[in-house]
Amino acid sequence: MLTVKLKPRHRLFCFSVKGHVKMLRLVFGLVASVLCIADGALIYRKLLFNPSGPYQKSAVHDKLVL
């Protein structure tokens, strides 16, 4: 005699372990992309409005001799 096996009831996606992992991965990806864009904007702003830095070349006659 054949026995019929019922399929176990599936959990919703958001209540499964894989669902939590995928949502966390999505959140961390979004946060990382926002932080990368903000970092790029701050570096661009700093270089645009304050181009003088440690790598700026200056003429020899501009240096003060004490």
Topology of this structure?
Elements: H1 17-49
Order of helices and strands: H
Please outline the major beta sheet: none
The averaged pLDDT comes out at: 79
Number of strands: 0
Shape: rod-shaped
Into which percent range does the helicity of residues fall? 40-55%
Q: How much of the polypeptide forms β-strand, as a percent range? A: under 5%
Question: What can be said about this structure in brief?
Answer:
This protein has one helix spanning 17-49. By secondary structure, the protein is mainly α.
What does the model show?
There is one protein chain. With 66 residues, this protein is mainly α. The chain is built from 1 helix and no strands. The chain has one helix at residues 17-49. The radius of gyration is 29 Å and the shape is rod-shaped. This is Chemokine like factor. It comes from Monodon monoceros.
Short key terms for the protein model shown above:
mainly alpha; Chemokine like factor; 66 residues
